[in-house]
Amino acid sequence: MTKPSRNSLRIQFLRVLRPWHRRLGLASALFILLLTLTGVAINHSDDLGLDKTGVTQAWLLDYYGIAAPKHVAQFGQTSSALYITDNLLWQNQQMILEAADTLISATYASNMIVAIDAQQLYLFDKQGLLQETQSNSTGLPADLLGLAFVDNRVWLNTANGIYQADEQLIDWQLASLPNGFNAWVSANNEIDKAIINRARSANLSWQRVMLDLHSGRLFGHLTIWLWDLFALALLMVSLSGFWIWLKQKTPR
């Protein structure tokens, strides 16, 4: 029985190698396309606004485990409402504050917007730009519970009593409530549901999604291994392509 020649073995190997070279090439091309598109998006995320554009797709937010806010409140009518979602404050569905603690109340006060959490008071202009933050270190009473704006004065309900501010909102004094006082700011019974989705999307930007997709971390540790296999396939395509080119006969 004659042994196959080296030339015959080489031809048979090339016949087996070429289909795998094409298959690996196709897989590698898709991988390179994905890396290229996400890489370009990441490099130009500022120009494309990806760092400031929140993800609104509910399934993607669910996948990242971003739940709806636990504390949601609406103050005022929808056209000019202030919203609280946990520690975020919104004006006309535009986020204007990310506080360190859960916000309690917010209201329009003359030419300002006033909001409070348990230990701080936040002052904004009418356009929603933060002007000042007050705390216990600046003389603000501690353990805030409620907020009111009556007779051009800001009132605070606290665990230690009722306080009234002076006209400049600098000094706070213990005060007695006027007769028939019923002006503590309370939330509306009905809430614009769109603000809940906005609050969720504020926790996830498209820049983060592109980074996770580019690195292979979007779908967990298994995807990282899959990305490694794609990289190995790309290496095999390069080596097999070079070997096929090297072993092909030069046309005469």
Binned, the helix content reads: 25-40%
Q: Compute the separation of the termini in Å.
A: 33 Å
Q: Largest sheet, described in full? A: 4 strands, antiparallel
What strand line-up does the widest sheet have? 1-2-3-4
Q: What's the SSE pattern?
A: HHHEEEEEEEEEEEEHHH
- The rounded Rg comes to 31 Å
- Unreliable residue stretches: none
Number of helices: 6
- Counted beta strands: 12
Give an account of the 3D structure:
By secondary structure, this protein is α+β, with helices and mostly antiparallel strands. Helices cover 37% and strands 24% of the residues. The strands form 3 sheets. It has a 4-stranded antiparallel sheet, with helices on one face. A 4-stranded antiparallel sheet has the order 5-6-7-8, with no helix packed on it. Strand 3 (88-91) and strand 4 form a beta hairpin. Helix 1 runs antiparallel to helix 5 (206-215) and helix 1 (6-43) crosses helix 6 (221-247). The longest helix has 38 residues, at 6-43. It starts with 5 loop residues before the first helix and ends in a 5-residue tail after the last helix. The mean pLDDT is 81.
